[in-house]
Amino acid sequence: MCGSLPKKAKGIFTCWDFGYMFILPDLLFTDNLGEDCPVFENLFEFCQIYADAAHRLNNQLCDIAINWAGGLHHAKKCGASGFCYINDLVLGILELLKHHARVLYVDIDVHHGDGVEEAFYFTDRVMTVSFHKYGDMFFPGTGDVKELGEREGKFYAINVPLKDGIDDTSFTRLFKTIISKVVETYQPGAIVLQCGANSLAGDRLGCFNLSIDGHAECVRFVKKFNLPLLVTGGGGYTKENVARCWTVETGVLLDTELPNEIPENEYIKYFAPDYSLKSPGGLMENLNSKSYLSTIKMQVLENLRCIQHAPSVQMQEVPPDFYIPDFDEDEQNPDERMDQHTQDKQIQRNDEYYEGDNDNDHADGSRT
Length: 368
Prior knowledge:
Blueprint lengths: L1 E4 L6 E4 L27 H7 L4 H5 L5 E4 L20 H9 L6 E5 L6 H6 L6 E8 L23 E6 L5 H19 L3 E5 L17 H12 L5 E4 L6 H15 L36 H16 L34 H6 L23
Parallel strand pairs: 2-3, 3-8, 4-5, 4-7, 5-6, 7-8
Antiparallel strand pairs: 1-2
Helix pairs in contact: 5-6, 5-8, 6-7
């Protein structure tokens, strides 16, 4: 499903099935393929599917872009990592930097957003803020509060390391305090929000205690800043809760209250026995004491005080955006997938010769 509401200027764009990312397939086959990043048929096409929609924000075709298939924050410049092959978040931020002097990246996945942080570790044009489990050899092993960025990027990498069992109250209070101060200090032109659902209670790989309401409250809070917003998915290994979470958060972004009862559908058996949309938090012990969270908060706020003011940048000539297909979205069925071959047919190269109206040759053999 791919469409915007409405077509022009204001609305929300959802990109579930394809993106516009032009890279060579050979770039995929670098490092770390295998183990948690296995090679499989149509791997390149899979990576194209979770590409971003940042260019639509740049062209003011929407206010919020949603890409639940994206959020693969572990992929590095020369290597796949943690089920992530190509880092769509980095590509999206690079696209947003063409039009915005500063971009804020916020990550609420249970794992540290190491790939995004590494990509922008030496620049002040992107501030990365990651809330994640840290310690006990937890993947990827990075994300200490002392990781601040370097050179021009010093103090522009913010890490909020948490322990097992953090609940809605503790998480949302800390999140709102830090993000409020970050936006006030950094004054971003756009925000990228990674909404990994493995921070929910009961996730097979996660160890947090968040309910869907608590997770969604972070999305609601970021939305209130009324800045161009790119929202992506991320990790999540209890599939029925992933589906619940991102459905609720789509409703939040659309200002739509959804009924708690899940309607009859072909996947209804996965949501037994209560068939409800919301899920409560878990019963895991919260190992994040008030004193620990207070210490982390004070360290982060102290680091932010080292930023005297929002950094400025001299904007140069803006590079061209990714290709935007020329078709009438009003005539597209949002429930039908457009395959890659159909998309490719819509691309017309300017350096080729065609018959008829597109012929570059004049009848006398001369060219313009």
